[in-house]
């Protein structure tokens, strides 16, 4: 049974944009989310847990990238979210490592 033509109308550049947004942008969002969380709560526990949860979040973000209509929108969304998390990391209170 052949594929439906309406699902095959994306260009090579749109496919490339969604693949790169899912892989690179999704990893950037997952990593900055875990680092932002580690900046505000117990960083040792979050960083140890992130070895497993980062992959799960990254895989979900890869799938979500392919649900978007335009690769530019998903790239802007992923870059905006990672920028927000980066700002949260930057303004995080300093951790007291001596205690």
Written account of the structure:
This protein has 99 residues and is an all-alpha fold. It is built from three helices and no strands. It has one domain. Helix 1 packs antiparallel against helix 2 and helix 1 runs parallel beside helix 3. The longest helix is centred in the first third of the chain and has 29 residues. It starts with 11 loop residues before the first helix and ends in a 9-residue tail after the last helix. The mean pLDDT is 89.
Secondary structure elements and their pairing?
Elements: H1 12-40, H2 43-67, H3 71-90
Number of helices: 3
Annotation, overall tally of beta strands: 0
Estimated structural class: mainly alpha
The share of residues in helices is: over 70%
Give the domain tally. 1
Q: Characterize the overall form.
A: elongated
Fraction of residues in β-strands: under 5%
Q: Averaged pLDDT, please?
A: 89
- CA(first)-CA(last) distance: 66 Å
Main pleated sheet: none
Low confidence ranges: none
Q: What's the helix-strand series?
A: HHH
The radius of gyration computed from the alpha-carbon positions, rounded to a whole number of angstroms, is 17 Å
Keywords:
99 residues, mainly alpha, 0% strand, membrane
Summarize the entry for a quick read.
The protein is mainly α and 99 residues long. The chain contains three helices and no strands.
């Amino acid at each position: 049974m052949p594929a439906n033509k309406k699902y095959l109308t994306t260009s090579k550049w749109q496919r490339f944009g969604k693949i790169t947004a899912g892989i690179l942008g999704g990893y950037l969002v997952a990593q900055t989310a875990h680092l932002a969380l580690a900046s505000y709560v117990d960083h040792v526990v979050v960083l140890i847990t992130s070895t497993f949860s980062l992959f799960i979040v990254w895989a979900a973000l890869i799938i979500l990238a392919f649900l978007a209509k335009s690769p530019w929108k998903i790239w802007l969304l992923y870059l905006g979210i990672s920028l927000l998390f980066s700002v949260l990391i930057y303004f995080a209170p300093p951790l007291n490592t001596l205690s």
